[in-house]
Records
---
Amino acid sequence: MSNNFDLIHRPRRLRRTEGIRDLVRETRLDPANFVYPLFIIHGNGIRREVPSMPEVFQLSVDEGVKECEELMALGVKSIILFGIPETKDAKGTGAYADDGIVQRAIRAIRDAVPDITIITDVCLCEYTDHGHCGLLDGEEIVNDDSVALYVQTALSHAATGADIIAPSDMMDGRVGAIRDGLDASSFQHIPIMSYAVKYASSFYGPFRDAADSVPSFGDRRSHQMDPANFREAMREAQLDLNEGADILMVKPAMPNLDIIHELHQTIDVPIAAYQVSGEYAMIHAAARNGWLDLEQTMVESLTCIRRAGALIILTYFAKRMARFLHS
Ligand code: PBG
């Protein structure tokens, strides 16, 4: 041996050219696994950019339809709908009204873009005048009566043409109740993607601007999970699975790659991750300051969420990432 450099293993051999790097790349992204969130508002011809979320808009139904056509052309075939109602009340009536904003959007999109997969977020926080996710008794969110309203909301979405129901409220027992409700109304074929592991996270800040769902007092820590907890996440996931969830979601994504990984290793239903508004806003803000490269950071963040074990990624980058993959 002449020196210390007679190495048998030189990992750099497989990093020498883009061709070789491409050959050994273990994780690839496909726009078909992305879900693009849409914020739908009343009116016509409206595209209002969300200040804290560049390139994300509140859209009137007609503009939402155009967005869906563009998404399909890019290979992004799934959306999740959030509604911003004209009026709010204590019971969140707009969430389950037959002519509610999400119901209108479902009809128009189903009609114009029949093959797109329409997922609907089921929660009351965008529809209650107090901004909380359920019915209040004083300052407490009442669990079981709120669940009854999510069931009503889910049924209304399914009856209008939604393909997948996604409860995001984090009340106990809501997945089972929605499953029973759907089954009893001949919607046995409609899957539930549950926000199973949803943390009480500061990364939702920009979303609450976009969806106009800032709680008028307090926070969401009485029902969303403590970011300090891992074992509890496993229990939440198992409960939702036992109650009939078809897809389990983790949210936010990047702070919780350990949870995504563990669920992927231990549970055999598809795992989804939501790269939330704050994760998106943070990358854009840094890029605007010249501190990060927007495109490279987008690719890296999504690749690592996929690598951790998320098959499905809900992301505001879906369109930009699809364009990147096509280029
Ligand atoms: C509740 C809901 C929230 C998000 C998705 N569904 C907000 C919350 O729990 O306060 C957050 C998504 C994001 O931040 O991008 N309807």
---
Amino acid sequence: MDAASPPAPHIDRRSAPTPMMAQYLAIKEQAGDALLFYRMGDFYELFFDDAVKAAGALDITLTKRGKHLGDDIPMCGVPWHSHESYLARLIKAGFKVAICEQTEDPKEAKKRGSNAVVNRAIVRVVTPGTLTEDTLLEPGRNNFLAALAVEGDVGALAWADVSTGELYWRRTDRTAFAGDLAALAPAELAAPEAETAVAWREALGEARAATCVSDLAAPFFSARRGEERLCETFGVASIDAFGTFEPVDLSALGSLLAYIELTQVGRAPALRPPRQASADAAMTIDAATRASLEIVRSSGGGKSGSLFWAVDRTVTAPGARLLASRLSAPLTDPAAIAARHDLVSAFVDAPSLREAVRTLLKGAPDMARALSRLTLGRGGPRDLSALAQGAQNAAEAAIALSADGGAGPLGALAATLNPQTDGGRLAVLAARLDKALKVDPPLLARDGGFIAKGFDPGLDEVRSLRGEADRHVANLEAKYREATGLKGLKIKKNNVLGVFVETPPGQADALSAPPHDATFIHRQTLASAVRFTTGELADLDGRIARARDEALARELDLFATLTEEAAGCADEIAATADALAQTDVAAAAAHLAATEDHVRPTVDDSLAFDIEAGRHPVVERAVSAQGAARFVANDCRLSEDGAPLLQLVTGPNMAGKSTYLRQNALIAVAAQAGLFVPAARAHLGVADRVFSRVGASDELAKGRSTFMVEMVETAAILNQATPRSLVVLDEIGRGTSTFDGLSIAWAAIEHLHGENRCRGLFATHYHELTALSETLPRLRNVSMRVREWKGKVVFLHEVGSGPADRSYGVAVARLAGLPSGVIKRAGDILKMLEADRRAGPGVDALPLFAAAPSENAAAQQETTDRSASDLSALAAALADIDPDALSPRDALDTLYRLKQLSGDG
Ligand code: ADP
């Protein structure tokens, strides 16, 4: 969406619009940048620019209606009864939509005069972050609305899922913001207008590329008002119970609540008290790493192909949402991680109980979303029945889980599934709803017919009147047949005539003639039938209609009462919904572990990283789906004697380097998220951050060259990785010329080794880097095993110790189908180059024993500025060097000599 408000329709106050147009324009002004759905009878109409935009986005006809300032007014409309599908398309296309309803009966308006306009008002603004309808939401994904408040460099993020009631907040800053936002992936971000957050302009600019940003004016961010709002929303006198808040936190939470209030127009969703998402409690994963590891979304943007996709065995939508959020924010506290693993273990050890619980959960509804719709006045009978059903499923699951006496983690889970607060208030509500509602009630309350017989005596009585009327009709039919002697006479009913007498055309004349014409009044002649009414029938019709209205009113009353009762149980419902989701996730994780051979990892406070026979969950699925080969499992050790190690992974393209790198990062993410892992054994020291980068990924859309992106991202890692971090760098330095790239990769490894001192995996096609292991004690060379057979390469996908023997590029090119002439010529050139390299200085002569890594890069840069003569002197000196013959001491001396030659010594 255009974040700056698009121009409102041109309004010229000097002209005198019709009263309706004046009303429209006034309401449109309130709607701001949202399209205005203006209710007229059975349609929502759009006018002016709104109509043009909507007609384009929806591919519907643009018409015109009347004139404004002498010009035609563009108009389009969508039918009220099917507006949700249009709404969904507009929201997807990035629009917001303000829904304006008639707020009085048109008959009332008429009383004010024939020209009076029906009162209308905006009842809701539909925005991407405030959706609640199942038709507009993805079941297995949270739909977060986030708000950012800033105070200098410090920011606070608050976020809520209006459809489930979850509410969180955390502190952020300009550097962390992009990562925090990527972790949340909100559908919408409410943020301060540009002029009030100048320092954040760049950060917010990037956010706009990732999500829909709605600008809010400064008053939204008043911390004092925020505190008041929090107290009002949760009915407390002081917010101390929810934690310690700085003003910036209060402005974030306050602006979020204010924006919800604004869009829901006074209706409040059942939000839960705010929970602080502590920065330390979760593994930090920045936006680039999320994209590179494809944690909950693959590079295509969807779930398919992501880690989430590969490990999701949940059977409910809330379970899927919980699993996605756990994968997005893996834990860092070993005890909390172990608690999740304990639960999975318990389900692994009890396969039949697990299956029983999973079968039970398959029918469990989305209680949180149902409750949210009900409290926002958008719920229906089906939502009420979802609450009853969910509570019942939870109670049944609790019974199953406490079968062995309720001990251990499963027993504890059972207790949360069946909360006994207030004497089992939820169970009482569920029983009541169960009694109140018919089986499979309709989605909407408006047509009635959902309250079960026997629940409300008043309703049953009104309904029995209707039943009586039916019997009465049958009696009348018999009576009229007898009186007229017409066997073909029937009493029927439709929406236009109500109840009527019908005869075949041939028999109708008898009814229009004396004596029957005194009783039967002609209403309609059709080709196949003639229809009459009678005084008795008209009376009966009236009674039927009144009984229907009365019954409907009674049902709607009951619906409102039941909804209120449900809202009164919001805390228990939320807790039960959470417990159901947790049960689903744990049982699903156990099911995955049991069926896909995943094991419980040991996660502790050490710096260990020891994986035996690890696998890449996504590639493994893809490989087994192809049915051709088996995924080859590989070990990975990134620690020795308690100290972190770096692995340098070499091998030809397509040998499996990237797969190996990522699988180890993914195993760490899955383990800390509380899942078992695809390996034979895993011992991991908690990683505080995981970084993953692929060299030279294309981000030209953001206006940076690919190489610039690569360097910015590498810089972020080198500046932020701690000894607790896990760093995965794939082909860094690829985006520039060979020497540049090699030097940068070289220096980056030295920095990771000497400064960051983290656990890391570094894949490269620069063979020269393998020599680094001679000088860096905690660097290990490993390579992807490859076999050459009859001039062809065979990838074994096996990681072995030691560097790759050579690069196999030409062999891979053959595999890719390059013409044989090109392959042969490339082979010849390679031989020549390799011979050259052996004969004189080449890439191997790079400064193995250079001083500080940072100076390395600087020296390289300067080379380009030298004059041609300097360069030729240098070249001659270089040509004299035989690197293989130099001792370390000689090499250093040579370096000094070269520096002198360059005029810099
Ligand atoms: P590289 O990074 O070395 O170019 P990739 O990691 O992209 O190689 O792997 C290329 C392909 O090889 C993968 O798409 C996958 O099909 C296959 N592959 C990689 N690792 C394995 C493995 N361990 N077992 C089986 N197949 C693998």
